[in-house]
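Me: I hope this is not a bother. Any chance you could explain this protein sequence and its structure tokens? It all follows right here:
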Amino acid sequence: MWYATRDRSQSWRRTPCMARRQRACRMTALLLPMVALCAAGASAQKTWIVDGTGGGDFKIPQQAVDAAKDGDAIVIRAGVYASFTVSKKSLCIRGENRPQVFIVWIDKVPTGGRLTLKGIEANGVDIKTCPGAVHCEDLRLASPIWPFLSVEDCAQVSVTDTTCVKITGSSYTLTPPIQLKRSTVQLTQCSATGRNAEPYQMLVIPAQCALRAESSTVRITGGTYKGGDGKTISSTNHASAAAIETVGATDLLIDDAGPTQLTAGVPPAASMTQTAIVATSTTGASIRIDTATQVTSQGTTQWVSGLVPQILRITGCLAQGAMPGGQVQTARHGLFGNASLLLLGAPRVALPTPWGECWIQLTTLLAVDPVVLPPGGVRTLALPVPATGIPQGLPLTFQGLEFDGKTVLLSPPTTVIVH
């Protein structure tokens, strides 16, 4: 229904309510040519069970990986396991009751392929030289030395609900818990804390940032990142660290879903300062931060040092928790009064469109929940997942779409795994 009011001159004018309804209708008309309503995803070819007590197909994860073919699923039951390597394969590897693995090495996922790693605890995950897609979800990287997530020379890596935690002990290490090099990475609801400055034998280990990105494209949706604190050691002040450090031609974008919390480490002296983000070797670099980001610098009002950031509105989408017979919780963030739509379907490598990059296979694309964003600009939605008909291990990608009457915006993607 359309509404209009008449002023004293008897001319017709639109009300704000009418304008918002028009935006929703116009957005739907723009999307109709690109939306195909199809069911998404096929089940895995075969599921292999790893059980250290002998109750499965294999006792060791590496044996299951070697036996598996592209499209297969591997379930690792609770237990303690040695490191394993996945090379040149598209698999779905899922932990049951959080098994503990020393290190997971992933490399050379083929172009057009996809590897999924979910629900394990490990000292580290190392991902290298992957032209295909890698998705990590619900990982706990915990180590008495230092946990790490390392991504190098990869075309498309997404990481969701992953935490890097140092549990005990000390070591000589100069690497942050999350290190990205020459890669495109989406981080959703992750958390990491850089190590504090501390003495180690005859040396002093400097404080580390939580995330370092070198010549990479990085998208952050929600989560917490804290730099390590400084310390006075033998009457010498050792500086704290930023939450994030960018090096070289890195494109860093933090959107409005989450929100994201960035906290600089605390300096050892009141006269010392530390920004939440430090940019070095900045030729070709850019930093864009949504206004909803919660930033804590130490001793300064600056958010970033080394580069002038863009502080602006960046639409985002957040999806968490998939369970057959349960629900997927989603949240879209934007401006009050704008039209909004939730897109979902099977994941794909990014496809450029006039509205931004689409990360969903068009043949599986579903468009649901067309609304006008309420006051506060946040739309939450619980989507039921059928108890039957959707296989475990199926990846689903979500994107938010927003229309302000003139421009269509696509959010960065978020992927969840049905489990």
Q: What stands out?
A: The radius of gyration is 23 Å. The longest helix spans residues 16-31. Helices lie at 16-31, 61-67. The first strand starts at residue 5 and ends at 6.
